[in-house]
């Protein structure tokens, strides 16, 4: 009973918080492939064809800044053991560890030189790009502060610069500017935090602009990233946050359900107690009083 | 040395007619020299035995499990015999390969810790055994060496040595008795350690070696013994002794066995025949088996179940992995499938799958709690400490506390169904007290029977107050210990201090005491300090008689070859008179005759026959009074019979050992006529001799005149009846296995309330027939009859007792009969087996253990109980007595039988519940945790990635969740110790195994499964893809893993709180400690350099703690996880409460204080159904009295 009294309000509050969050989701991996390539998307993505694509997003409700831009990938096993292990933390952290690439196989060396940052994770860095415009006016995407501060400060060194990256025969994902230290390459930092599930969202940037209802945003995107070989979806998400984070009805519903369940249980036990009362500590319930057969 | 000289004059053979006779020379029909009889001993030439073929084992013994060299391999082997350990060993090895999902240290460290701890324990225990052996091996004995006798350590004694053993020393090996300080080569041995019998046994040397009774005689002594090979039979020996060209047969009465003790004899000489492990007693000893408790054995099954689960999910996982590798992997360009090594090769999914199997098996190892063994071991050691520290089991007199010698079996104490108890030294003190007597039809001795006293009190009181009975019992038993003189506990001023002279019939009284003082075979010994005499008697009751006679003023103080002198203190004249009785014949006591007679000539020349004997004999099927003495009375001698019989019955009912005394006056002519006859019989040689002697004795022992009876209390140990009563109420069955005589055993049965008047006694005895088949058929018939009787019994209050002796047991324990016997035994309220050998004790124990499949507990004090103690599920030794063999072999030791009550009813009950709940909880927690790994793995393409940081996993079992569960295992009490004792019926929860049955185990596993599902999926859904904090970041693997882990910690701790019913600050500390430690760890781990903490760097401080969703999720999951269990206990408490629930409630609402009437009534009700024990007996008595009253009305 107590639980239900505590839970139901929490549920209601969380639900409200979740309802406050406005979210726009746009799935584009099919639409951004030209009609003639639709049957063989993989070859399209691997070709040098122009991959620019334009999308229109309509704002449904008022979206207060900051608006977070996410990309959502599907069926992408960032949590695969082979993938997760393929990185070198010591190399990322400090310049002195630049040749510690043993854990990065098969993406450890290129042309006989160690790769910085090495490993499959960095190699497969997401490389679709989004440009937003509202009423023909460029909407700036702020890429600063999308990663954890501790990562920038301690895990990705200020003196570590990309070296020999995406230089091999196989190009994975995005290339990095070799003049910018890793601590400033926030896309990489976000990407390197491997997701727990094969469907995941990662922060792309922030739009520091309030969006009014019914406004239409034009997105010019470069559809570079190959999710077609594993038939993964790609989504672009614009979302605000509440104190609870993103849109998360489930938490509220779960609270309500558990609270309700507790209420129901408490009620039913009360009923049982009323129908068939058992005085607490009633000795007649002792085993030797109940079954006269003895022990 | 004065004593020694007196003794030298004695020819003790004078005292013995029946049990000893001179070995017939040249009689060797035995197959000496044949197979099985190949041993040859060159007497006094031990050097002959230094080479083959006469090289025999040395005399040192070793009971250790390991030697210095074998310890490591053997102990390791033992450790890895545990399936779980083997599995973890495999994991540890595999963790060195790249297959491992974790770092190698996190696999090896816990295993090394677990195994190391267990091995250290083993080593310590074995070291103790080694020290014990060393002590025995280095005992000294005098060995003949060329010229003189030198002291040598036991371990250096060789076959063929001549040794000299002095009074009260143990024999270092099996010896052939050559001579003693007594002229006729008789010596006494105490075989307590072999068979538990307390009376001394006479041994007699061969006549040819009698002269070898000086050290110098052995200079040129040579001889050859040819005899049987080492064997465990204590009572047989076959061999020849070749000496001076003659061959003499050796029989068991010349063999002195190792571990028996020389008593009442200054010294003996003997030749070493069997040494060390060849000796009979060592042959009898069985290897001490390592015991495991029922719960632990069941736990193995659970582990097997978990292994199967593990195997199944590993199979699923590797199958899934193989499929993913084959079909999806080629598309996962980001993993560079073309360059994949063998573990992730899409072209060879089968190989990858198989290698993944290893990974999976390691990953899901969390299903199998590696720390379970360690935790259980820690818990058990702590529990054992509680047992050792329990002040209520501390014996103030001896200063010995109870001791849990192995901690393996604590919880087994809570499941005992049958107790098999030794008698002497366990139930009784092996001390006889002269308590009462009946002389010339008048009963003397003031203290009335305990049972009657209590019953009277009962009748007077409101039946509700029966509880007070205990107080009565305990006060009574304490009263019994006040007597200051050992062997004498008689209070009646009519007889004391010479007052007997004022009694009517004083002639009879005087005669009665004279019989006590004369009719025996004891030897007086002057205690020079006190000036009084003490007596060296064959049996303690004889000693008690003499002490009593002394106290009554008839002091026996001198025995010569042919006379006994008694000083009478109180005479008509007032001056002490010494009276000398010439002993003409002694017809001594044997277990068959059950009587002893002396024929003496007093100072007036009158020949008197004095006889004491058992007043009853156990008949074939039921206990009838077939009197030994009464049948032999003359017509005139029955004057007091009626009164005496009544008294005897009372005494018997009170558990006293009774003897009737009778006499007759003989005419000179009558005597001499008989004596010639008797002498003829005595000197005859051959098989008929015994029968002739028997006949002659029979002729004399008739037409006696009954004078009275004695009642000797075989003193029970303190609190034994009360303890037995409590144990009976706790639903335990008690079997008494004793090496003692049947009468003694039955007496004790009465004294302990195991037997009572009105109980139907089924007595099974073998007939004396020589044909084995006949005997068997007869016994079978008796057993069947017994079962029949029980089946046909209609009276609900009827109860049965089974009494069986060792000879019969030989047959009853044979394969084709033992189950019928057991069946009968189980139906009886109490079972008494008497005259059983150590081996039989063990066999009976095994039978009960295996036949009923229930837990047995054996309790004993002597070396003869070792077999039984080792065989039973739990062996309890009585410590604080001579000889520690029983204690050394035991699992628990207490200093008094009465502590068994607390040991079982309180500690046993608690330990059982604690361990049961602890194990259940352990499985719950590891399933709840381990399965989340599996679910997650399914989301990672079955790649074997774990969502938790390696460190979380390492700490999970070892640090974070171990202390709360240990505190549960150590401190949990469902009800307090007082309540346990007040309601022994609660103990039944253990034997009925209410807390560790499959239903409950599976329930807990189900609960774990549910918890894992709730934890995982709630977390997954909540952290699916949305930002989890206001900063917009989404949860990565570490954030999700950490949150999930937090949920687990909370859920498990809430669960344990719900499980516990007893809280002290320790529980609070451990549980809160567990939670706080987790957060602290997270904070500290997060603060460490990212080199160590990797992704968990600053995870709590930066990411999770500021996010409300982290906290709300924790709350939601923790509560939801425990919802099913809460509903379950609410349901159970509401509708199906168990006994301890109700009592908890009663205690909580202080109802026991407010409503004492109810409280006591319930205590009473809880114990109604018992059939043995003091309470039952009082109940029966009350019923009896009531029905009498009804009849009168």
UniProtKB/TrEMBL annotation, chain A:
This protein's record includes keyword Membrane: yes
InterPro entries listed in its UniProt record: CDC50/LEM3_fam (IPR005045)
Domain of life of the native organism: Eukaryota
Pfam families (UniProt xref): CDC50
Keyword terms of this UniProt record: Membrane, Signal, Transmembrane, Transmembrane helix
Subcellular location: Membrane
Transmembrane segments: 250-275
Predominant location category: membrane
Signal peptide location: 1-17
Membrane topology: Multi-pass membrane protein
One CC-aspect GO term: endoplasmic reticulum
Similarity comment text for this entry: Belongs to the CDC50/LEM3 family.
Protein name, as recorded: ALA-interacting subunit
TrEMBL record, chain B:
UniProt-listed GO biological process terms: phospholipid translocation
Record-listed Mg(2+) binding positions: 422, 424, 861, 865
Transmembrane domains' residue ranges: 301-323, 354-374, 922-939, 951-971, 1001-1025, 1037-1058, 1070-1088, 1108-1131
Pfam family, one: PhoLip_ATPase_C
PROSITE patterns attached to this UniProt entry: ATPASE_E1_E2
Catalytic activity: ATP + H2O + phospholipidSide 1 = ADP + phosphate + phospholipidSide 2
Binding site for ATP: 422-424, 542, 589, 612, 657, 738-740, 835, 841, 864-865
Residues at the catalytic site: 422
Recorded topology in the membrane: Multi-pass membrane protein
Residue ranges of domain P-type ATPase N-terminal in the record: 41-108
Chief location: membrane
Record's subcellular location: Membrane
GO MF terms held by the record: ATP binding; ATP hydrolysis activity; ATPase-coupled intramembrane lipid transporter activity; magnesium ion binding
Cofactor(s), by name: Mg(2+)
Record-annotated P-type ATPase C-terminal domain positions: 887-1137
PANTHER family with a match to the protein in the record: PHOSPHOLIPID-TRANSPORTING ATPASE (PTHR24092:SF150), PROBABLE PHOSPHOLIPID-TRANSPORTING ATPASE (PTHR24092)
Family: Belongs to the cation transport ATPase (P-type) (TC 3.A.3) family. Type IV subfamily.
Protein name: Phospholipid-transporting ATPase
Source species: Hibiscus syriacus (Rose of Sharon)
């Amino acid at each position: 009973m107590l639980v239900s009294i505590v839970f139901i309000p929490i549920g209601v509050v969380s639900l409200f918080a979740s309802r406050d969050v406005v979210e726009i989701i746009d799935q584009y991996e099919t639409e951004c492939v030209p009609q003639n390539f639709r049957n063989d998307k993989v070859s399209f993505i691997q070709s040098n064809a122009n991959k620019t694509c334009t999308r229109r997003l309509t704002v449904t409700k008022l979206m207060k800044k900051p608006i977070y831009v996410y990309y959502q990938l599907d069926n992408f096993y960032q949590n695969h053991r082979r993938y997760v292990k393929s990185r070198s933390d010591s190399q990322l952290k400090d310049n002195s560890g630049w040749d510690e690439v043993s854990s990065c196989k098969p993406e450890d060396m290129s042309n006989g030189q160690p790769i910085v940052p090495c490993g499959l994770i960095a190699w497969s860095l997401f490389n679709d790009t989004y440009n937003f415009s509202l009423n023909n006016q460029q909407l700036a995407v702020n890429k600063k502060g999308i990663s954890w501060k501790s990562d920038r400060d301690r895990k990705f060194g200020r003196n570590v610069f990309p070296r020999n990256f995406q230089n091999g025969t196989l190009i994975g994902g995005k290339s990095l500017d070799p003049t910018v230290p890793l601590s400033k390459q926030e896309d990489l930092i976000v990407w390197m935090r491997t997701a727990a599930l094969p469907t995941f969202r990662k922060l792309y940037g922030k739009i520091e602009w309030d969006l009014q209802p019914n406004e239409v945003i034009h997105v010019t995107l470069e559809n570079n990233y190959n999710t077609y070989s594993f038939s993964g979806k790609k989504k672009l998400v614009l979302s605000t946050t509440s104190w609870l984070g993103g849109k998360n009805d489930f938490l509220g519903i779960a609270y309500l359900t558990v609270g309700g369940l507790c209420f129901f249980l408490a009620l039913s036990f009360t009923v049982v107690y009323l129908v068939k009362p058992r005085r607490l500590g009633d000795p007649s319930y002792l085993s030797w009083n109940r079954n006269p057969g003895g022990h | 040395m004065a004593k020694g000289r007196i003794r030298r004059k004695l020819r003790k053979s004078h005292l013995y007619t029946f049990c000893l006779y001179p070995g017939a020379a040249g009689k060797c029909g035995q197959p000496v020299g044949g197979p099985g009889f190949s041993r040859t001993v060159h007497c006094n030439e031990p050097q002959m035995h230094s080479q083959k073929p006469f090289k025999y084992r040395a005399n040192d013994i070793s009971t250790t499990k390991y030697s210095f060299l074998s310890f490591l391999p053997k102990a390791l082997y033992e450790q890895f015999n545990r399936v779980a350990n083997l599995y973890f060993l495999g994991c540890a090895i595999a963790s060195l390969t790249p297959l491992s999902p974790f770092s190698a240290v996190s696999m090896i460290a816990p295993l090394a810790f677990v195994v190391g701890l267990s091995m250290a324990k083993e080593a310590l225990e074995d070291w103790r055994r080694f020290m014990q052996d060393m002590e025995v091996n280095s005992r000294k004995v005098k060995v003949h060496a060329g010229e003189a006798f030198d002291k040598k350590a036991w371990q250096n004694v060789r076959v063929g040595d001549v040794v000299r053993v002095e009074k009260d020393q143990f024999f270092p090996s099996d010896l052939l008795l050559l001579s003693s300080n007594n002229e006729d080569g008789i010596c006494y041995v105490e075989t307590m350690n072999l068979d538990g019998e307390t009376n001394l046994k006479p041994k007699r040397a061969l006549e040819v070696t009698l002269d070898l009774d000086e050290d110098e005689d052995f200079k040129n002594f040579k001889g050859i013994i040819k005899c049987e090979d080492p064997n465990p039979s204590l009572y047989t020996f076959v061999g020849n002794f070749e000496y001076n060209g003659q061959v003499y047969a050796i029989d068991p009465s010349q063999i002195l066995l190792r571990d028996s003790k020389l008593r009442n004899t200054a010294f003996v000489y003997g030749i070493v025949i069997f040494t060390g492990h060849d000796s009979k007693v060592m042959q009898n000893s069985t290897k001490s088996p390592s015991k495991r408790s029922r719960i632990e054995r069941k736990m193995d099954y659970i582990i097997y179940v978990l292994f199967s689960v593990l195997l199944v999910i590993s199979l699923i996982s590797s199958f899934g992995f193989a499929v993913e590798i084959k079909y999806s992997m080629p598309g996962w360009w980001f993993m560079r499938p073309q360059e994949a090594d063998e573990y992730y090769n899409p072209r060879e999914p089968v190989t990858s799958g198989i290698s993944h199997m290893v990974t999976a098996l390691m990953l899901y190892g969390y299903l199998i709690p590696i720390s379970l063994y360690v935790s259980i071991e820690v818990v058990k050691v702590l529990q054992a400490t509680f047992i050792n520290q329990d002040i209520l089991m501390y014996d103030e007199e001896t200063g010995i506390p109870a001791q849990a010698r192995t901690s393996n079996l604590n919880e087994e104490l809570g499941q005992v169904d049958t107790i098999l108890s030794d008698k002497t030294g366990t139930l009784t003190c092996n001390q006889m007290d002269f308590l009462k007597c009946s002389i010339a039809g008048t009963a003397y001795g003031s203290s009335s029977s305990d049972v009657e006293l209590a019953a009277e009190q009962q009748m007077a009181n409101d039946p509700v107050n029966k509880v007070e009975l205990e107080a009565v019992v305990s006060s009574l038993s304490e009263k019994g210990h006040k007597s200051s003189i050992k062997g004498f506990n008689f209070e009646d001023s009519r007889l004391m201090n010479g007052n007997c002279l004022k009694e009517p019939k004083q002639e009879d009284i005087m005669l009665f005491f004279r019989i006590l003082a004369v009719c025996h075979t004891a030897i007086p010994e002057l205690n020079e300090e006190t000036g009084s005499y003490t007596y060296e008697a064959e049996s303690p009751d004889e000693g008690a008689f003499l002490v009593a006679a002394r106290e009554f003023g008839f002091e026996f103080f001198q025995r010569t070859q042919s006379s006994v002198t008694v000083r009478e203190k109180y005479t008509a004249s007032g001056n002490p008179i010494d009276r000398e009785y010439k002993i003409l014949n002694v017809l001594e006591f044997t277990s068959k005759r059950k009587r002893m007679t002396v024929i003496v000539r007093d100072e007036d020349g009158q020949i008197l026959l004095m006889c004491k004997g058992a007043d009853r004999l156990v008949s074939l099927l039921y206990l009838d009074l077939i009197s030994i003495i009464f049948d032999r009375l003359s017509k005139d001698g029955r004057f007091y019979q009626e009164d005496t019989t009544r008294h005897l019955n009372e005494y018997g009912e009170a558990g006293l050992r009774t003897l009737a005394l009778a006499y007759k006056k003989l005419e000179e002519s009558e005597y001499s006529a008989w004596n010639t006859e008797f002498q003829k019989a005595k000197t005859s040689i051959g098989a008929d001799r015994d029968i002739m002697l028997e006949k002659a004795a029979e002729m004399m022992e008739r037409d006696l005149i009954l004078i009275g009876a004695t009642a000797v209390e075989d003193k029970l140990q303190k609190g034994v009846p009360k303890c037995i009563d409590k144990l009976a109420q706790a639903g335990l069955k008690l079997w008494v296995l004793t090496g003692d005589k049947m009468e003694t055993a039955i007496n004790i049965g009465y004294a302990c309330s195991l037997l009572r008047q009105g109980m139907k006694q089924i007595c099974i005895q073998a007939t004396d027939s020589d044909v084995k088949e006949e005997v068997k058929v007869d016994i079978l018939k008796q057993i069947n009859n017994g079962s029949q009787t029980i089946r046909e019994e209609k009276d609900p209050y009827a109860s049965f007792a089974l009494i069986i002796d060792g000879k019969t047991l030989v047959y009853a324990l044979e394969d084709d009969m033992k189950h019928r016997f057991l069946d009968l035994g189980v139906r009886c309220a109490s079972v008494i087996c008497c005259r059983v050998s150590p081996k039989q004790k063990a066999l009976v124990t095994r039978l009960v253990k295996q036949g009923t499949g229930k837990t047995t507990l054996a309790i004993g004090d002597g070396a003869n109980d070792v077999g039984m103690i080792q065989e039973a599920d739990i062996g309890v030794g009585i410590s604080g007595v001579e000889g520690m063999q029983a204690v050394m072999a035991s699992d628990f030791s207490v200093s008094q039988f009465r502590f068994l009550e607390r040991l079982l009813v309180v500690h046993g009950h608690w330990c059982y519940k604690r361990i049961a709940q602890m194990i259940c909880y352990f499985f719950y927690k590891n399933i709840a945790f381990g399965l989340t790994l599996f679910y997650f793995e399914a989301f990672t393409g079955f790649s074997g990635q774990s969502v938790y940081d390696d460190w979380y996993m390492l700490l999970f079992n070892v640090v974070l969740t171990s202390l709360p569960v240990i505190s549960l295992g150590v401190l949990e009490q469902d009800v307090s110790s007082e309540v346990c004792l007040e309601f022994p019926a609660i103990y039944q929860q253990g034997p009925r195994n209410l807390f560790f049955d499959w239903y409950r185990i599976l329930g807990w596993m189900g609960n774990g499964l549910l918890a894992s599902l709730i934890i995982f999926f709630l977390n997954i859904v909540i952290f699916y893809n949305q930002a989890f904090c206001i900063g917009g970041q989404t949860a990565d693997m570490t954030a999700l893993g950490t949150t999930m882990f937090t949920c687990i910690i909370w859920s498990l701790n809430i669960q344990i709180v719900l499980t516990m019913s007893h809280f002290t600050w320790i529980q609070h500390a451990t549980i809160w400690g567990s939670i706080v430690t987790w957060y602290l760890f997270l904070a500290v781990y997060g603060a460490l350099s990212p080199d160590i903490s990797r992704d968990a760097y600053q995870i709590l401080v930066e990411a999770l703690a500021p996010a409300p969703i982290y906290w709300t999720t924790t709350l939601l999951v923790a509560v939801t996880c425990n919802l099913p269990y809460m509903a379950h206990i609410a349901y159970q408490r509401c509708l199906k409460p168990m006994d301890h629930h109700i009592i908890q409630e009663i205690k909580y609402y202080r109802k026991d204080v407010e409503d004492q009437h109810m409280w006591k009534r319930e205590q009473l009700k809880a114990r109604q159904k018992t059939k043995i024990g003091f309470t039952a007996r009082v109940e029966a008595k009350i019923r009896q009295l009531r029905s009498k009253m009804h009849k009168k009305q």
